[in-house]
Amino acid sequence: ADGGSTTFPQQLTITKNIALTQSDSDGDYSGVTAVFTSGEALEAGEVVSIHTDGEVYKALADGTTSGAINADQPAIGVVVADAADDSDVIVLLQGFLTHNANFPTYTVGATLYVPEAETSSKCVPELDAPDSSGDFIQVIGYAVHANRIFVNPDFTVIEIT
């Protein structure tokens, strides 16, 4: 109740709904998260995938970078706060994230994709699906506001030939 954490040593049964909240406040998030080690410096809102070294990297659809997605290594979520290389980073696996500075102005209701390339050195979800031969297409979520997304990765990854 005071913002701390509670540990349940056994199975937890919830008989009511779990509410995820949307917030207009910059940097707010709610949902399912996990802590990983960053394989490079990451910024809030960037899409990530797990590399073979077990660390998370910027996920790109171009198939050539450390975090390049493919059918065996899809993007898993979005970073909720900036993180230095080789540090703990919180990844939103499913839920809502608001970010004014790093997100472009999204079209409400639009499907969002793993980006084909970084924009202004950021790897944030894009409105346009990748379209070049050798790229991979993966839905990462949906725009629910001009600067708020619902992260809900679809683990289906399609290669453009």
Question: How would you sum up this structure, described in words?
Answer:
With 161 residues, the chain is mostly beta strands. It is built from no helices and ten strands. The protein has strands at residues 29-37, 47-50, 56-58, 75-79, 88-98, 111-113, 136-137, 139-145, 148-151, 158-159. The strands form two sheets. Strands 1, 2, 3, 4, 5, 6, 8 and 9 form an eight-stranded antiparallel sheet that branches. It has a two-stranded antiparallel ribbon with strand order 7-10. The model has no long low-confidence stretch (mean pLDDT 90).
Question: Quick gist of this model?
Answer:
This protein has strands at 29-37, 47-50, 56-58, 75-79, 88-98, 111-113, 136-137, 139-145, 148-151, 158-159. β2 (47-50) and β3 form a beta hairpin. The strands form two sheets. Strands 1, 2, 3, 4, 5, 6, 8 and 9 form an eight-stranded antiparallel β-sheet that branches. The chain has a two-stranded antiparallel sheet with strand order 7-10.
List keywords for this structure.
mainly beta; 0% helix; 161 residues; two-stranded antiparallel sheet
The main pleated sheet reads as: 8 strands, antiparallel
Overall number of strands = 10
Element order: H for helix, E for strand: EEEEEEEEEE
How large is the count of helical segments?
0
Shape designation: globular
Q: Report the C-alpha radius of gyration, rounded.
A: 16 Å
Strand content: 25-35%
Helix residue percentage: under 10%
Structural class by sheet pairing and helices: mainly beta
Q: Uncertain segments of ≥5 residues (pLDDT<50)?
A: none
**How much is the average pLDDT?**
90
Distance between the termini: 52 Å
